Amino acid sequence: MDRESPPLLLRVVRSQPGQVVEEEQWSTGLCECYGDMGDCCFALWCLPVFACKTSRAAGGCVCLPLLDCVGCVPPASLAMRAAVRERYGIKGNVFSDCFYGWCCYPLSWCQISREIKKRTAALSKKQSSSPFSLKSKTRNTPLLYLDHVHII
């Protein structure tokens, strides 16, 4: 007798246990520079260097923001904003990324920087409070610790 076996059902795990990935909004608004005045002033006085620092913190090429002077839509701002949005599950689309990159260029880079800082700080706090974290003499620091860090 030839019986057909039921189809094999596979369950795909998209995140590690304990990690919750939700679709959210940006943690700060576009014009909320008052929360991080150091970066706001840094972006105001030297935006190209600030954009390069933020690009590096996001895991992109340091020189990527230098391409923003090519064309009418800044490609690096668009790419970084979309990458950060995708990484953290923030609602939005390429049209909003393009709009903010074109109309609110410095504010967009400041918002990206604040988002990376907040998410990195939350992740390091979560990891340090984890019951599985190793209690040793060495101090666990996140890979991208950006509070009060400036290149200059």
Order of helical and strand elements:
HHHHH
Shape annotation: globular
The description of the largest β-sheet is: none
What's the total number of strands? 0
What fraction, in percent, of the residue positions are helical? 40-55%
Assign the structural class, choosing from mainly alpha, mainly beta, alpha/beta, alpha+beta, or little secondary structure: mainly alpha
Weakly predicted, low-confidence segments: 135-143
Q: Roughly what is the average pLDDT, rounded to an integer? A: 77
Termini separation (Å)? 77 Å
In terms of DSSP E residues, the strand content is under 5%
Protein name: Placenta-specific gene 8 protein-like
InterPro entries: PLAC_motif_containing
Family: Belongs to the cornifelin family.
Pfam family, one: PLAC8
